[in-house]
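Self-study notes.
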Amino acid sequence: MTSKTNKTTSNLKRTIFHIDMDAFFASIEQRDFPQYRDKPVIVGAKPGTRGVVCAASYEARRFGVRSAMPVKEAFRRCPQGIFVPPRGGVYSGVSKLVMEILVSFSPVIEKVSIDEAFIDMSGTQRLFGPPLETAQKISRAINEKLELTASIGIAPNKFLSKIASDFNKPDGITATPFDQQEIEKWLAPLAVGKLWGVGEKTQYALHCINIRTVYDLQQIELDFLVSRFGKQGESLYYLCRGIDERPVGEDESAKSISREFTFPSDCSDKEEWKSTLLALSQDVAQRARRKGVKGDTVVLCYRRPDFSRHSKRLKLPYPSDLSKVIYEHGVKILSGIEESSLRLIGIGITDFDADVQTDLFSAFPQTQALEASEKAVDKVIERFGKNCIRKGTQMKMRNPELRDKNNASPPSQG
């Protein structure tokens, strides 16, 4: 294992920005409705219902209101808050405008969620100036064009830029060191829970062996961490030193393709579940065809109103990248779960077989016809846009961001 301690730090030559929109949903509401400005705005379900908070303005956060908190608790903490229903279509539209601004600075972008993205700004100094100056230009562009603010982290990799963007919220710009020794010193005082992949269970396990800060973790040998935490131990060893070599952009080595959608409030309409699965299945299938992969297993995931997350799998008779196949098997799984209400639903495919040829199953006439049909639709959509073709089921959907834009990424509020 000791040879891995020589892992390259060539990522220090890169310049990566993490753009994190500030209280995105709530800020849009305050922008669009001036009477809400400087007041505690809480986006989510109405008080008195079993829903949750989707987003809270910084004025509301001073009262301890946070995303995913039950509305009942949010109202208890902030009864004077302004509770407004989410406008998913509006938020998706603004998100698209944010990404258009970012693309004008660099084409190498990784959209993480509706309100955050990584940008690789390496080699752009001649165009926009030093990193800090460039970040200021991006911040001004977002503020002037959209009347919103963003917090920006500047670092040599994705992990460090993500941490940096949280330092001076809202509307702050933070740069990490770019020297390896200085990076380790910069990380050292942080709580170990700041590291990617350290959830409550891992944090508790680390606390049990007296590791509470990143500095504590930096003192531990790689062999010990691997023996104690397996593959995650290796990741912890490098992250606590600020080493992260992942490129900005879609991960081509992904082992699965999936999409999820969080309902604005707990949904008990099973037809709505199915229509949502249809839209998600179509997007999953299109992504699979673009990557040239087929999945051997369909995975359905869902979140109950109590926020517990569950997933079920169903093996396909043959690998597929067809939305009809993915959807029908998803519905089959759905029929077997005993839930009266869902907060989130998602579907995906996994167990890719790289050796499967695209015409391997052409012996099945029905499969061949379906593949030809869906590929034809892909070409039409590529030329005229997603909204040019919609199934009747989609026309009835209540979720406009799925019906019109098929934008099903769950939000991540900053």
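Second protein, same conventions, sequence then structure:
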Amino acid sequence: MTHSQLTPGVAAGRLPRDSYADNFSDLHAPLTAHEAAVASDRCYFCHDAPCMTACPTSIDIPLFIRQISTGTEESAARTILEQNIMGGMCARVCPTETLCEEVCVRETAEGKPVEIGRLQRFATDTLMEKGVHPFARAASTGKKVAVVGAGPAGLSCAHRLALKGHDVVVFDGRAKAGGLNEFGIASYKSVDSFAEREVAWLLEIGGIEIRLGQRLGENLDLDALAADYDAVFLGMGLAGVNALRADGEDKGNVTDAVDFISDLRQADDLPALPVGRNVVVIGGGMTAVDAAVQSKLLGADSVTMVYRRGKDRMGASLFEQDLASSKGVRIIYNAMPVAVHGNGAVQEVEFEYTVDDGGKLSGTGERFFLAADQLFKAIGQTLTGAPADLTVERGKIVVSETGRSSRAGVWAGGDCASGGDDLTVTAVAEGRDAAEDIHTSLSVKE
């Protein structure tokens, strides 16, 4: 039986081969030196800058933009990286339109903010392209810390701990470090293997060992880590995927959106990646948009996102929603899946319109059908592998403001822990802050 018979409607090579490079090129072209100088001149260098307050990592934005305007890009990069060691990736993937740029005085006055994200990328890229790592390790403390998860939170934590002189071993279940930066975001947001290059650059601090193929709850045990290391940080993200809770969701070509994005990010040959002719994505967050847009860029004829609540409740920003629409993605609001129909593989999806009454969602009884030969679920992820002795609420490890869990000697941060939004920049901040608290704790013990 051929592949097309096994997965009817899903095929590779829907577009001419030369179309893929254009479709998956950089979403935001990097600034030239002249463009950066012009963009930086628009900043008012506010003393009480609202953009700093809006940044989860509290980067001194007016300072780094002033440094760019004076031609000291490397100093600007250091200002950024002191607060956010993954400032290069965050400049690419942060929803700046709902964070720093939304509160920019220029945005308030003119409807056109300073391009903070692109300026941040200009500075950090300039430094990295020179092969410079701006930080040096302190003298060895003799302390060892285990970090579970080589994503933004874990790597941020590891770098800050190494900077303080601790030895760090980072464990990750995948075959490659980087976490969501490597596997979980749209290819057009991070081109030219940037995630991999950023990890290699970050490790230049020294004192950090990466051990891959190690997953908590499988071949990695928290008790053993706690016994062998002076402290443990958990930053393994959310590996499970929520169920659709619709009849027929086990049919063929019903896939988790995160798996689709991961396969796409790791694909060596995009024309060889199969995609449906009629694609439906269920969800309203960034992952849903990434899956929908990339399906369209791979050559799907029709791509529809369906979200159970209204436009104002979507996790994806208005910019991301507009991006999806501009690429030909149709978005249907206030509808929930009822059943997946098809003979073996999905052929159509049945939905019911919904009403949101004060946060309580209910169906209206009115239903409709969408043709689909490929269905992606982007309805949130769940925590897996968390030890029973950790307090977990609403699917996340409960932590203090500095990342301390209910178990002594164990910290957590990023998507797996309670705290802020599930954003790369938030994960970086939580990893950094936990590292500072771990360092304080180890210093007190010493």
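Instructor comment on the second fold: The first helix runs from residue 3 to 6.
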